[in-house]
Amino acid sequence: MAARLGLVFFPAFDWAISPTHPEREERLLYTKDQLFEEGVLDLPGVVEYRARPASFKDVARVHFCVPQVKSLAGEAHLVAAGSAIHLAEAWRRGEIKRGFALVRPPGHHARRVVHGNRGFCNINNEAIMIEYLRRHYGVRRIAIVDTDVHHGDGTQDIYYHDPEVLFISLHQDGRTLYPGTGSVNELGGPGAFGYTLNVPLPPRTNDEGILYVMEELVLPVLADFQPELIVNSAGQDNHYSDPLADMCFTAQGYAQLNALLKPDLCVLEGGYSIEGALPYVNLAIILALAGYDYSRVREPDYDPSAFPLTPAHREYIRSLVRELKRIWQNREELAWQNRPTGDFAEFRRRVFYDTDGIEEFQEEKVRLCPRCPGYQEISSYGLYPDGRRLEVLALSLPLQACEECQREAREAYSHHKEKRTSKYAVIYLQDRPADRYYHYYPATDREEVL
Length: 450
Prior knowledge:
With 450 residues, the protein is α/β, with parallel strands linked by helices. It folds into 2 domains: 3-332, 3-Layer(aba) Sandwich (Arginase, Chain A); 342-449, Severin. Helices cover 33% and strands 24% of the residues. It has 12 helices and 17 strands. The protein has helices at residues 26-38, 56-60, 69-72, 75-92, 125-137, 153-159, 207-225, 251-261, 278-290, 311-329, 331-338, 403-419, and strands at residues 3-10, 46-49, 64-65, 96-103, 113-114, 142-146, 165-172, 196-201, 229-234, 265-268, 344-353, 358-367, 376-383, 389-397, 426-431, 436-441, 446-449. α1 crosses α9 and α7 runs parallel beside α10. The longest helix is centred in the middle third of the chain and has 19 residues, at 207-225. It starts with a strand and ends with a strand.
C-alpha cells in the first residue's frame, strides 16, 4: 500500500549566496528540528527519501545555460533538482500518494535562458522534475499552482507556449514586489493562450483572501482542466512575518490551502522567516498533505484578528477572480481573437538578474503552426558586471512538435552551425522529441551533445 506522504530534505550546507543572506541553510534546519521534535517522521505513512543529484541532461531538457550547464548548475543545484525527481519517481511508481521536496536552492525564477542567478535561482527544480516525468513516464497533462509570494516568472516563461501545462500563480501584485511581473494580461503564447493564469493579490491579503481564490478560481479551473499531475510550487513567503514581502498568510492558511489543493507533488520555493514561520508552516503543510490533524499548529504570536481583509481588498479579489474565470471559460475564442498573423509571433523581453547584476535582452520568435505549439527561436545577449557581452541563439522543439516543425528547427540549427555565426558564443538546439540537447561553440567549432 502506498505511503501517505514522501519527504526529501536537502538543506545544501555548502551553498549560500553569502553567510548572512536570507537564502541560507537555516531555512530547512529549523524545520527539520521541529519535525523531529514533534515526531512527524515516525507517523505511520510518512517516509523519508534520500537526496540525489540530477544529470546535466536533465537540466538541458529545460534550460539554455550560458555558456554551459556546468557553469551554472553546481552540485547543490543538481541535488536539489534531482531530489525532486527522486520523489516524483516514487509517486509515479505508486510508492507514495503525495510528495514534498524540501530542498534548496529554490528555482522558480529560473527561465529558459539562464545567464546567472536571479531571485536566488539558477535552475528550475520543478520544471526539471516535470520534464523528467514527461520524458520517462509519459505524464502529459500537468497543472502547476505557484503559491510563492513572488510571481513564478521563470516557470511561466518555460511553459508559456505549452498547452499541456496549466500554470496558475497566486502572488503579491508585481507592482509592489519583485520581479514586477505576473499581471492578469500575461495569459500564454499563441498556441497556449489562457493556460497561464496570474492572480496578483494586493499587499496584506490574508487567509480569507487567498483561500477564496483557491475555492472560487483554482479548484474549478483544475476540475475543468483535469490534470494527471498537480504540482505546488510551495513558496512560504506569503506568511505575515516574512521579511521580504507584505502578505498576511498563516500556518493554518497554508495547511487549509494544501488540504483543498491536494497536490501530488510539492517543491519548496521561498520563505525567509526562518524561526517565526517556517517550522510551523512546514509542519502544518506536512500534516495536511499526510491527512493528519493540523488544527493545533500555531505560530507563537498567532492572532487571527490581527490581519483583517479590508472591504476594498475583498471586492478587488472577487473582481479579479470573476475576470480570470471569464478568461478561462472563453480561452479558445480569446485565443483566436488575439492570435498574430503571419508565420511567426515575435516577443521582446528585458530580464534583470538581481543577484548577479546581469542585464539580459531577448528576442523570441515562435512558429505559428496549425498542427502543434510550434518551435521557438530565442536570440539572447547578456551584459555582465565585468563588461563582458555574451550572445547566444537557442532553438527549442516542444515535446509535441509536428514533423514539419522538427525538420525546420533542426535545419535552422544546422544552418547556423555550418555558417559558424561568430556573434554567438553558443548555438543551442533543445530537441525534446529526440531527447537530445546540442551546444555548438562557433569560436572553437566544437559541439557537445547531451
